[in-house]
Amino acid sequence: MSSMHSFSPLRSSSALPTLLLGSLLHDLGKGIASPLMVLLLTTSFALNSWQAGGLLSIAMLLATLLSLPAGLLFDWFDRRHLATAALLLMALAVALLPFAQIILLVSLLLVFMEFAAALFSIGLKALLADFVKEQQRVQAFSYRYILTNVAFAIGPILGVRLAEASLTLALLVAAGASCLAMVVIMCLSKEQNPSRTSPTSGQLSLAEVPRALGKDRNLVFYTLGSFFNTVVHGRFTFFLSLLLLYKYPATQGMETLSLLLLTNAATVILLQRVVSRCITLESLNSRVLMGAVLFSAGLLGFSVSEQLSAWCLSMLIFTLGELLIQPAEYLYIDSISPPHLKGSYFAAHNLASLGAAISPAWCGFMLSLAGPNGLCYSLIACVLTGSSLCAMRPRLLPTNLASR
Hints:
By secondary structure, the chain is mainly α. It is built from 15 helices and no strands. 48% of the residues are buried. Its main location: membrane.
């Protein structure tokens, strides 16, 4: 890879805890707010579940598409300021939701909320690359992944409890968490001040970046592969709830789902650091393929499980696949992206989250067409396709785009 000339690496250890705390607060706010969106749409606007789900999927699709051009700005302006602006937008959108009186305004606020979350995710990955030494980034991403699971284990429960008293209160607390995250990220500039050099004469213009990204076969292959993988793990709670509600009465299905989510969170918290230690650039292909095998085994288990113990064992195996594939994606995109185009590369790779946006529609269609087994087999096909595309990427890392 080319030498860094846009941002200097981490000079002290104080930046990583700050970034992780900001990430935790952001995820906590989103964890509180996200499960309440369906409640807001169904109770305040009398939408049925299909209409509410469709509106949320459209909002996510639009937000993901908008995140690509917006994400490119992270390579041209101060990344800390843009990440702070994304958190402010998130806080405003969530805080205004309970006061919106027309569905059009609610729809716009949902798009802004999802867009801000996607933008902050891009910015955080770029900031981790700025402030954390290269050999420490997989561990840093693993810490972030653990904290994300902690936040999404606590956030929905807290959100539901608060909503029992007042939906407005719950959403204002979620907005407050985003505001606290914004304050934390703002403090980063006082602890560390990475210097950014002016663009050199050979550097690509902002208008040229998308075309150059499209020519990078490494990025294209990996993003396409990640898209198929994200269909499986991006919204796995949705297909699990569909399977469980198909097989069991609602009360039993939801109780089983809660135990499966607890199994998922506990596995991530306990094993993420251990698993991440075996992920290196040299072993990336084998780890991604191993993750695909574990995903497939977990999905096969879901298709035949009847007892709670079998469901939990399948969830454990499925989560181990997730632990291998998620950090591997970050490590690879970080390794192929020139330092002055970190934001652009992460923004382009964020298009893979379109897989999560279409996952609910795909899972619902396959379940109605082919039943539980057909749904699980289709998801196995997705993850095997995705992991194969990731493994088929050109082996040579691209040179600095500025020299092209």
